[in-house]
Amino acid sequence: MKKVVVSAFCALFSIGMYAQSNTGNLPSTAQDYVNQHFSSVSVVKVDENSNWQIWEDDKYEVVLSNGLKLDFDENGNIVEIDSANGEAIPASVLPAKIATYLSANHANAQVVGWEKDDNEQEIELSDGTEVEFDAEGNFRKLD
């Protein structure tokens, strides 16, 4: 009986350590973002891209249990959100101007992708439409 209790304690402790270390290598900005917007979803995996991959804009990739993939730059700023299985991206993570435009013009479509770079932001909707915005969130065009 003592072995069972000790084994169970060790198993629970190791699971807790794994879950905590899962986001431990992320910058605090990225950790705060995940906790603020996705606190009800567990983190499945965190990958840190190698420094020699200079063509990569994203430094950290976080995979959530609901199928969303979050990419962060080296400072922990979000640069991309993708849905692997059609899971809708919460409107709360989108810039306010973009969320307002989408609710007014594409109210029935769910957002399944968002990407930001220096000059623009791009939204992918569940119906396949791509909507482009400038860096400030002003509408540019539909693709």
UniProtKB/TrEMBL annotation:
Keywords: Signal
Protein name (record): PepSY-like domain-containing protein
Residues covered by the Putative beta-lactamase-inhibitor-like PepSY-like domain: 58-140
Signal peptide (residue range): 1-19
Lineage top rank: taxon: Bacteria
